Amino acid sequence: MSDPAPAPDPVQIRIDGVEKRYGEHEVLRGVSFDVQRGITNVIIGASGAGKSVLMRQIMRLERPDAGSIVVDGQDIVPMNEVALTKVRRKFGMVFQASALFDSMDVFENVAFPLREHTKMRRKEIRERVMARLEDLEVAHAARKMPDELSGGMQKRVAVARALVLEPEVLIYDEPTTGLDPITSRTVDELMVRTREQYGVTGIVITHDMASVFFIADRINYLYEGRITASGTPEEFLASEDPATREFLEASGVGTSAAFAKRR
To answer: Residue 22: in which H helix or E strand, if any?
Structure first.
């Protein structure tokens, strides 16, 4: 009888000492934190703190100037494009404004990654796409155009498209920006349900503090190019880091228990 397979490392991505500058402008100044497997990891920070730049480094859309980014035991910083193509298949992306193709209906938007990156047959594509649309409760809109959908439905379609290649890590870039409070809460619930249903590792980049304390399992605060606080929502609220305290107080959260994780 063979030995059971070892349990996967609970840390899926290790970011250590990542630096990035553009000319004389230093954006990331030694960012270090862990992305925990199978939970929702939130990165918060003020506008201009470098959250989107950090996201591009994590997916290795850009090469950091220094530091390492270890994904499932492999440092992806020195990788060439051939090796990176395989690693990037681990990631799915939900863009800030959903970024659906206006010229394609919902079905074709979700099918697009399969047509571009796989050799699946038409029947297989249809089955995979409709399964994701049904999971996200938008199958009835398969032949509608994006401009016929509400903001919340567009986000559901964007998540379906991100999941169609069965990624291990799902990145959300400012998922509730521009949405009204009711739609924002719907999107929050969608992110929680997606993690529970698919078991994906979530990375959410946001400054929506009400959303943070609803969806987050871990919170990482990016301030002046560094992560100055990391932990569970409860640990984050109790942080004594001055920059973190100032950010919490400015956001209106403070240490109020009303903003503790509510699921």
So the answer is: strand 11-22
Residue 49: CB atoms within 10 Å: 21
Nearest CA among 95, 97, 27 for reference residue 62:
27
Q: Is the pLDDT of residue 115 over 90?
A: yes
**Sign of the C-alpha dihedral, residues 33, 35, 36, 41?**
positive
* Pairing mode, strands 226-231 and 218-223: antiparallel
Average per-residue pLDDT for the chain: 89
Residue 1 has pLDDT above 60, yes or no: no
- Tell me the C-alpha distance between 151 and 46, whole Å: 24
For residue 54, the model assigns a pLDDT of: 95
The rounded distance, in Å, linking the Cα atoms of 106 and 142 is 5
pTM of the model: 0.88
Nearest Cα neighbor of 169 from 135, 203, 137, 141 is 203
C-alpha dist (Å) from residue 149 to 15, 78, 106, 152, 154: 37, 42, 9, 8, 6
The phi and psi torsions of 48 (rounded to 5 degrees) equal 85, 5
